[in-house]
Amino acid sequence: MNSPKNNYQENLKGLRDDLANMLPKEALEIFDADAESLQENHSSIIKLQVGDKAPDFSLSNATGKTLLLTELLQNSKVVLTFYRGSWCPYCNLQLAHYQQSLDKIHALGAELVAISPQTPDESLNIKEKNELNFEVLSDEGNHVARKYTTVFKNAEAPLNTMKNLGLDFDAHYSDDSKELPVPAVFIIEKDSTVSFAKSLGGDYRNRVEVSEIINHLKNK
């Protein structure tokens, strides 16, 4: 895949072309139907609104170190993004997209933190694969995600399709709940107040543009 441009939607077309070449047509149709179904069935995603206090958490990073939100907020604002897993091409695209603007995010007084229900080993995998220079945390069991965004059980059709493609979904997680968070982004001020909360809905193919994050940080 080509190096991502600093615009998710622009690069999404290239990813879709790649997937069309890599995957059987029937498999891609099943994944797309799943995304469209999730969009229809999950209309109220965000659990926190602007002005709410962000719940504190304690999670392991990719090397097993425990990080607390309150400790991160002592030094900077936090841009928190929830993603599905290292097996999800749209998550990889989004995180690589954010990595390209990491210096700008830092210059605006914020740290970027990504959270998924994956094990620390899988967090390390996605960090190394995409050369990510920000914290990738493991929320095994989605305990933190439930306080911020919607958590749902992955459907049988995409799971069976992944299995047929040789992808072991369960190997990425420490439980067999098959639960995933709906992707969402939050910006948390140093006093723990949520100043930005956004999800583009259940359709995981769509993600918050980094330009929105940067514009918000600039205007705060």
Note the main attributes of this structure.
single chain, globular, alpha/beta, 9 helices, Glutaredoxin
Write the layout of secondary structure elements.
Blueprint: H1 8-22, H2 25-41, E1 58-60, E2 66-68, H3 69-73, E3 77-82, H4 89-100, H5 102-107, E4 110-116, H6 120-129, E5 135-138, H7 145-148, E6 151-153, H8 156-164, E7 179-181, E8 184-188, E9 194-198, H9 210-219
Parallel strand pairs: 3-4, 4-5
Antiparallel strand pairs: 1-2, 3-8, 6-7, 8-9
Keywords: Antioxidant, Disulfide bond, Oxidoreductase, Peroxidase, Redox-active center
Protein name: thioredoxin-dependent peroxiredoxin
EC number: 1.11.1.24
Short structural description:
The chain is of the alpha/beta class and about 220 residues long. The protein is about 40% helix and about 20% strand.
The radius of gyration is 17 Å
Element-level helix/strand string? HHEEHEHHEHEHEHEEEH
CATH topology: Glutaredoxin
Fraction in beta strands: 15-25%
What is the CATH class? Alpha Beta
User: In angstroms, what separates the terminal alpha carbons?
Assistant: 35 Å
Shape: globular
Q: Please give the largest β-sheet.
A: 5 strands, mixed
Say how many strands there are: 9
- Secondary-structure-derived class: alpha/beta
Number of helices: 9
Number of domains: 1
CATH architecture type: 3-Layer(aba) Sandwich
Walk across the major sheet and give the strand order.
5-4-3-8-9
Fraction in helix? 40-55%
What is the mean pLDDT?
92
Uncertain stretches: none
